[in-house]
Design a protein that fits this description.
40% of the residues lie in helices and 13% in strands. Strands 1-3-2-4-6-5-10-11-9-7-8 form an 11-stranded mixed β-sheet, sandwiched between helices. Strand 2, helix 4 and strand 3 form a beta-alpha-beta unit. Helix 2 runs antiparallel to helix 3 and helix 11 crosses helix 13. The longest helix is centred in the C-terminal third of the chain and has 24 residues.
């Protein structure tokens, strides 16, 4: 019988245990698959479980151990992969009917780098269709449930990747973040969640939502594990013209540097936005005090343009999505109606039947924003707003090394609670979107539990472009100071 307690170990501890021959990679893979079998019927973190791939990867690690070879940094670490990243031997569905049976014909660069680092691919994780959503309710294959409360959402769009880590079905996972789709579910599931600088991680093999905003990043249960994953997947890729040839620092070395003398700016006007729950505000204030107690120089800063980020994002994101999703036309690949009268009928009906409601809504919004007569009024204005937000952040980083904000305005909400109100759903990303517009790195770190509901609360730490080392340094110090146990009730019970 598989020892599922292995799934409580961090990635760093698992790799060391395998290197010392205390446990085999195969035993770890079997433990992860047993945890999936025990819990995923209730959580639905995975669209596809890949035992053959996981066990084959484990066998390769065990052969390296037997041969006395040096192990890669994530050797034997179970990993989940968001279902908008291609991986040979799996389907890449984007949780959409239009790609329900699409078989990957190549492997995403970030996924390949994760595998090259020794990770074991446990499966493809559920998501909002084409990453359009903040709750993972928009999946064509049913919602993912939050391991902290199965009646609540795990956030989105990378909710399956977050839930898999929170429920100990994977030790780490990959998600994609266009407006908060890694950090917001990280906050709602009590996991560490990282959006790197735009261009830090290759997007090759990621099914595009908004090409100027998308970034791949990790979920983990500790800052150290998140740093290990980003270290493995970061760096220039000749297959992605938007990836940047910027040196990748040693993120692990930065974790123990402490924050004495670090300048931390608390973004006060974000705490005053309508909809920010009192317990969320209190968590940011506790985090600021923790930084001060650790010797950081804590001050206040305002980012008034960032409050317009939501409006700009919901022009730019849908506009780019409408262009990217034009390829799903029922002709080249994906779902196709069997009885079309002509090419126009084929395209229109295939898209109408293959796309879900939220996907259709965003494509229509984006197409309208780009249409003749409206381009300058909407898309052009949104891009100007984006530039002003970038300048505002640049000025803030002249005074501070990192910025501190909430990650999500509330804790996890109930499934169905916001499904009929798109605007309320969009407001879930009000704190995360500005970093995507500016291309900045951000990390969500668990910062407490709501007294009333017992649900996790996250805070967000942002840093300068390509300064993930300082971001991790601050996050590790906060994690150590708070010393939280973020084990969901579902995991405790099983």
């Amino acid at each position: 019988m598989a020892d599922r307690t292995l799934m409580h170990m961090t990635a760093a501890r698992l790799r060391d245990a395998i290197a010392r021959r205390e446990v085999s990679a195969r035993e770890v893979a079997e433990a992860a698959l047993a945890q999936v079998e025990a819990l995923d019927a209730r959580v639905h973190a995975f669209n596809q479980v890949t035992p053959d791939l996981a066990l084959a990867a484990a066998e390769r690690i065990d052969r390296m151990v037997a041969a006395g070879e040096d192990l890669p940094p994530l050797a034997g670490v179970p990993a989940g992969i968001k279902d908008n990243m291609n991986l040979l031997g799996t389907r890449t569905t984007c949780s959409s009917r239009i790609l329900e049976n699409y078989e990957s014909v190549y492997t995403c660069t970030a996924v390949q780098r994760l595998l090259d680092a020794g990770a074991l691919p446990i499966g493809k994780c559920n998501m909002d269709e084409f990453a359009f959503g903040s709750s993972t309710e928009n999946s064509a294959f049913g919602p993912t449930r939050n391991p902290w409360d199965l009646e609540r959402v795990p956030g989105g769009s990378s909710g399956g990747s977050a839930a898999a880590v929170a429920a100990r079905m994977a030790t780490v996972s990959l998600g994609s973040d266009t407006g908060g789709s890694i950090r917001q579910p990280g906050a709602l599931t009590g996991t560490v969640a990282v959006k790197p600088t735009y261009g830090r991680v290759s997007r090759y093999g990621l099914v595009a939502f908004a090409s100027s905003l998308d970034q791949i990043g990790p979920f983990a249960r500790t800052v150290e594990d998140a740093a290990l994953v980003l270290q493995a997947i970061a760096g220039k890729d000749p297959m992605d013209a938007t990836s940047v040839d910027e040196p990748v620092s040693d993120y692990i070395a930065a974790l123990d540097a402490g924050v004495a003398g670090l300048r931390v700016g608390v973004v006060t006007d974000m705490l005053e936005l309508e909809g920010c729950a009192g317990e969320v505000r209190a968590s940011v204030e506790r985090a600021a005090k923790a930084f001060a107690d650790l010797g950081a120089d804590v001050g206040e800063v305002e980012l008034p343009m960032s409050r317009h980020g939501l409006s700009a994002y919901y022009i730019i994101g849908p506009a780019e999505a409408s262009s990217n999703l034009a390829r799903f036309d029922g002709i080249r690949y994906g779902y196709r109606v069997p009885d079309a009268e002509d090419v126009l009928d084929l395209c229109m009906r295939s898209r109408a039947e293959g796309f879900g409601t939220e996907t259709i809504r965003r494509v229509m919004l984006g197409t309208y924003a780009l249409s003749a007569g409206y381009y300058d009024a909407y898309y052009g204005q949104a891009q100007k707003t984006r530039t002003l937000i970038m300048r505002e952040f640049a000025e803030a980083f002249e005074r501070f090394d990192v910025l501190l904000t909430p990650t999500s305005p509330t804790v996890a909400f109930k499934i169905g609670e916001k499904a009929s109100d798109p605007l309320a759903m969009y407001l879930s990303d009000v704190y995360t979107i500005p970093l995507n517009l500016a291309g900045l790195p951000g990390i969500s770190v668990p910062a407490g539990l709501c007294e009333e509901s017992g649900l996790p609360i996250g805070v967000q730490i942002a840093a300068r472009h390509f300064d993930e080392s300082t971001m991790f340094r601050a996050a590790a110090a906060l994690e150590g100071a708070l010393g939280l146990d973020m084990t969901p009730p579902l995991v405790r019970e099983t």
